[in-house]
Amino acid sequence: MLIGDVARRSGVSARMLRHYDSLGLVRPTGRSNAGYREYSSEDIQRIFHIESLRALGLSLREVGRAFDDPDFTPSELVGDLIRQTRERIAAETELLTRLRRIAAAEPTGWEDVLQSIALLQALGSKSAGRRQRAALSSGEEVPVPVEALVEAALSERDPNVAGALRWALARSGDGGLALLAEGLGSPVAAVRKRAVESIAEIPNGEATALLQDALTNPDVVVRRYAALALGARGVADAVPTLIDMVVEGTNDVDAADALSALASRPALVDRIATGLVDRLAHGTLESSARRRLAQALAGIPGATTTQALTELSHDEDRAVALTASYILGMRDAG
């Protein structure tokens, strides 16, 4: 079969067939009397094999190796192709994400596009200082897509950069809250912590609602951060978790301060005092936990607290009794 017929039947151009010949991939079996290439059925089958391997992503050099190398291992080659394909997909996905973020910034000209690219690259820089500067400058000239800020905030390990990113997110409004809410459900504990920290700095009702939901999160760290933030916002739902924090001795000073701030609302005074007193009544608590509870009562006004401190001033545990007596003296002096 002459080269023109092979080209028509195989779909491979005559030029490519000549190229295969020059590389030694498919050498026509014979020549016609006029000197034209003549391909046998075996040659044509080899052409189809070449095209099949090229369709998998092999280069012509790799195709030649597959045909001619006696040590060729198909499984190894397929494994390499899988790895290369994954890398290519990852690179294309990264490019697509970057393009979407630039589009979300709604650039009005090439200068805006270039500035957006520069900011996005800076957010992904290996330099913590450069990332921090990018976060602090976000939105000043060219808006940074909130999706990029959220991704950076959820992955940032440097505390200074993380603070700058949370600040930038708070400035951007509530656009990133849905993505941050997804972060609360991440399988990675560090991501969940960063998510609740970021939500805590967004001062609006939707963020408050997310924090209230976070009080039932399976992650105790998330619950604690949510409680501290809600305490600062005057949300009563945080009281049980804050009392737990005092008992457990985890950020207990901050938790006691939050309870004191909540107690500035008259409607919550008795609830907080009763909650602390009830925990003090548990006979299984260690001395240190009871002392922390007594200290927390110092910031809670009202008769319930005064009565509890009076009783505690005669407690069998000397450390608790001394703490209660000191607080009573301070209250009387005040």
UniProtKB/TrEMBL annotation:
Pfam families: HEAT_2, MerR_1. It comes from the Bacteria. GO terms for molecular function: DNA binding; DNA-binding transcription factor activity. SMART domains: EZ_HEAT (SM00567), HTH_MERR (SM00422). PANTHER family: HTH MERR-TYPE DOMAIN-CONTAINING PROTEIN, REDOX-CYCLING DRUG-SENSING TRANSCRIPTIONAL ACTIVATOR SOXR. It comes from Sinosporangium siamense. Residues 1-69 form the HTH merR-type domain. Coiled coil: none annotated. This is Transcriptional regulator. The lineage of its organism: Bacteria, Bacillati, Actinomycetota, Actinomycetes, Streptosporangiales. Transmembrane segments: none annotated. Keywords: DNA-binding.
